[in-house]
Design goal:
The protein has 144 residues and is α/β, with parallel strands linked by helices. It is built from 5 helices and 5 strands. Helix 1 packs across helix 5 (125-143) and helix 2 runs parallel beside helix 3. The chain is globular, with a radius of gyration of 15 Å.
């Protein structure tokens, strides 16, 4: 079975940790690449020594240097990434940003915060996303 990969574009270390933990919980062989802003992500994808094309991109909207919207505009200019699914992680409910991101082909949204800090046994939104979205998509791709 081919190892799947995810590019996480996120500037918040706690959210990166949350994604890493959620991936461990689904017990699926997934390689995680991390970039801390859009410019770094574009370099990973198309730079001198690019990573393999990821199966998914998890994208924060609010980041320094190049935000998620700017990244999506740049990504969609490269036709070789048209088939890469992009899920946006955001706390924003700005309709204008959401509409533009949908027009740029994002597959969906994950609402932050990604975890709970009140020591309850509630699942985080990232855990639920991994369990019900990513895992479903990964399994469907193996059956194709």
């Amino acid at each position: 079975m081919e190892t799947k990969s995810i590019l996480l574009v996120e500037d918040d270390e706690l959210d990166v940790i949350s994604v890493e933990r959620a991936l461990v919980k689904i017990e699926y062989d997934v390689k995680l690449y991390t970039a801390f802003n859009g410019k770094e992500a574009l370099s990973l994808l198309s730079g001198d020594n690019p990573i393999p094309k990821p199966d998914f991109i998890l994208l924060d909207v609010n980041m320094p240097k190049m935000n998620g919207l700017e990244f999506m505009r740049a990504l969609r200019q490269n036709r070789s990434f048209d088939d890469v699914k992009v899920f946006v992680m955001t706390t924003s409910n700005e309709d204008q940003d959401r509409n533009e991101l949908y027009n740029l082909g994002v597959s969906g949204y994950i609402l932050k915060p990604l975890n709970f800090t009140d020591n309850t046994k509630k699942s985080s939104s990232m855990d639920n996303f991994m369990r019900f979205q990513i895992l479903k998509i990964l399994n469907n791709e193996h059956q194709s």
